TrEMBL record:
NADP(+) binds at residues 39, 45. This is Chorismate synthase. Residues 99-110 have a biased composition (Basic and acidic residues). SUPFAM superfamilies: Chorismate synthase, AroC. PANTHER family: CHORISMATE SYNTHASE. One of its GO terms (molecular function) is FMN binding. The gene is aroC. It comes from Limosilactobacillus gastricus DSM 16045. One of its GO terms (cellular component) is cytosol. It is an enzyme of class 4 (lyase).
Length: 388
């Protein structure tokens, strides 16, 4: 399975083509739309979310809610394009009238300057329109298709927020996906510790008043993923490597780890390795899960735990120094409409890019032309591993 996305932040639409989804998978469009709506939530979001009300259109590869085996095509319209129609017109030639709102003062921390240098753009809007995190909307749509596939194979996962700026809201860490979903649904920051919500709101409000931004820490937990997916034989087949690459492909991510992650580096081996157990009823297991469900590049049957660190959003309302790309004069950076923090939304995006990689790995491992055949193969595989 692989996918590609296209579209700009203020262009007509975002588009995705997914190739390799098995025939016979039931897709619920309302589940995709619910995920898109969740991505737009969270305290600290900007005005753009009041304009967009993201919904998906399935325009290929599905008939009567069932995939047909060909590429699945998804579209999410940009409602804000109505305010940018001339400026972002794909076919009209450039004129003085439709070339307004140029970006010539690159924002520190964004793709603006380096992207302009690489692609020879002097109007950096050509960079920011594609490098914008708006693209994550269509990735959430792709990810939810993969989540529906995983769910129908008995795999479930959730992403949530562990920390916002300096405020930790990790609560009691658990790998019970249903319990996590229940807890984070009770607040608008997707955190486990309800007692920290008011403090986080106050932090976000004060940060907004200062014209500043916040990042944070995200955790994704995956339950009931089959053991043995991935491989130790080649660097590019390791499951943790693929997951890390997927997480780092998301805007603003600056760190990723599995299980205890960086904390494991400061511990002794006896405190980090997960002792092995076996029982007639459950088969193989571990007595702990410090390694986050992955050993030697392969899933080991324990819950998979992926952690991500998101930097503060680089668009500041009190902008930093930059240099105009045309005049070379020192100026203040461009100010584009942005969020104070998008950490809650980012947890949903990370959840979905993890789902994409987990689905890809399963579809690479088993016969994936038909979903019912895939289900049977996965169940046989699970039984074989239990009986080993």
């Amino acid at each position: 399975m692989h996918y590609i996305t296209a579209g700009e932040s203020h262009g007509p639409q975002l588009t995705a083509i997914i190739e390799g989804i098995p025939a016979g998978l039931h897709l619920d469009v309302e589940e995709i739309n619910a995920a898109l709506a969740s991505r737009q939530g969270g305290y600290g979001r900007g005005n753009r979310q009041q304009i967009e009300h993201d919904t998906v259109e399935i325009v290929g590869g599905v008939r009567h809610q069932i995939t047909m085996g060909g590429p699945v095509a998804l579209v999410v319209k940009n409602r804000d394009h109505g305010n940018w129609g001339q400026i972002m017109d794909p076919v009209a030639p450039a004129t003085p009238e439709n070339s307004v709102r140029r970006v010539e003062k690159p924002r520190p921390g964004h793709a603006d300057l380096v992207g302009g240098m690489k692609y020879r753009h002097k109007d950096l809007r050509n960079v920011l329109e594609r490098s914008s995190a708006r693209e994550t909307a269509i990735r959430v749509a792709v990810g939810n298709v993969c989540q529906q596939l995983l769910n129908q194979l008995g795999v479930k996962l959730v992403g949530y927020v562990k920390q916002v700026g300096p405020v930790s809201a990790a609560g009691n860490l658990t790998t019970d996906v249903d319990a996590i979903r229940s807890a984070i649904s009770q607040n608008d920051m997707r955190v486990l510790d309800q007692s920290k919500v008011a403090e986080i709101h106050e932090l976000i409000d004060e940060t907004k008043r200062q014209g500043d931004t916040l990042g944070g820490l995200i955790r994704v937990v995956v339950e009931d993923y089959p053991a043995g997916i991935g491989s130790y034989v080649s660097y590019d087949t390791k499951l943790d490597g693929k997951l890390a690459g997927a997480v780092m492909s998301m805007n603003a991510m600056k760190g990723v780890s599995i299980g205890d992650g960086f904390d494991a580096a400061t511990s002794f081996g006896s405190q980090v390795m997960d002792a092995i157990d076996w029982s007639q009823d459950t088969g193989w297991s571990r007595l702990s899960n410090h390694l986050g469900g992955i050993e030697g590049g392969m899933s080991n049957g324990m819950p998979i735990v992926v952690n991500a660190a998101m930097k503060p959003i680089p668009t500041l309302y009190h902008p930093l120094q930059t240099v105009d790309v045309n005049t070379k004069k020192v100026v203040k950076a461009n100010v584009e409409r942005s969020d104070t923090t998008a950490i809650a939304a980012a947890s949903i995006v990370i959840e979905n890019v993890v789902a994409i990689e987990l689905a890809k790995a399963l579809l690479e491992t088993f016969n994936a032309s038909n979903f019912q055949r895939l289900q049977a193969d996965v169940q046989r595989y699970r039984n074989e591993f239990k009986e080993y």
